[in-house]
Amino acid sequence: MSAINSDNISITPFYHQDTGTWSYVVTDQPTGCCAIIDPVLDFDLTSGKASFDSAQQLIEHVQSNQLKLEWILETHAHADHLTAAQYIKQELGGKIAIGAGIKDVQQHFANTLNLDLPADGSQFDILTHKGDSLALGESHFIAHPTPGHTDDSMSYEIAGNIFIGDTFFHPDLGTARCDFPGGSADKLFQSLTFLTSFPETFNLWLCHDYPKDRDAVARTTVAEQRENIHFKKSGGNPSAYAKLRNERDSTLSVPRLIYPSLQVNIRAGQFPEDESNGRKYLKIPFSLQKP
Ligand SMILES: [Fe+2]
Fold first, then answer.
1. What is the 251 CA–ligand 1 centroid distance (Å)?
2. Is 60 exceeded by the pLDDT of residue 201?
3. Residue pLDDT, tens place only, 77-136
4. Centroid of chain to Cα 3
5. Residues lining ligand 1 (ion), CB within 5 A?
6. Angle in degrees, CA 233, 238, 244, rounded to 5
7. What is the CA(180)–ligand 1 centre distance, in A?
8. What does the record list as coiled-coil region(s) (predicted)?
9. First to last CA, the chain
10. All domains of the chain in start order, with CATH
């Protein structure tokens, strides 16, 4: 765990080993106002048991530093982990924000999973749009749509730092997949190009890292991501990138936690209602492959 200071903003990353996810606490130091980005709920798929151990680390950081939580920011509706946003809001307050494109994601998964869910984003406190400003003490985040991985993907810029969600991964690993509903390699290429248009010293904070022979990395820079293996291989050509991306996506399996994740994440972290026996259940769509 480390903190990096820049223009009175401190950033503390937290790594969730099971899903390779980075969560962040971002603090405006003069005022102690803070935001949590992409908090993770611990979830065991086999037993269906969830717990708050990882979320508790974020909460303890906020409490032990006597910070005031203003925002819980989701960079998108994640398909690889469940969000702890609702639990953190209950414990610390703050407003849960996500990109306005969440409505399309809700509509798709409400249909796929036959959920009784209004696809209007009302489960979240704030839906963010291009250029929105979210105050954080004496500073503020600016919302930048960065679609491609999903339609609701939003990056958040503050004081020379951008939390980029699933766009770039570590430069040696490439970029996010684009084969989810609403995903588009063409759109992701535009988002990657947009992110590399910032000054080369800007920090681009990753949503994930999946290291094999090195420690997990949270912070990259614009200069480093201009050399990203997928971005560079495309030679700045959108159709070359789309070809590379789509070929790679055709080899990827469905994420292990996609259905549990989406059922919780499109509800802003709220769990399904109890059924008649007092227990909650998560659905998996069943389909039979013909021999
Ligand atoms: Fe994702």
1. 17
2. yes
3. 999 999 999 999 999 999 999 999 999 999 999 999 999 999 999 999 999 999 999 999
4. 20
5. 78, 166
6. 50
7. 9
8. none
9. 50
10. 4-253 (3.60.15.10)
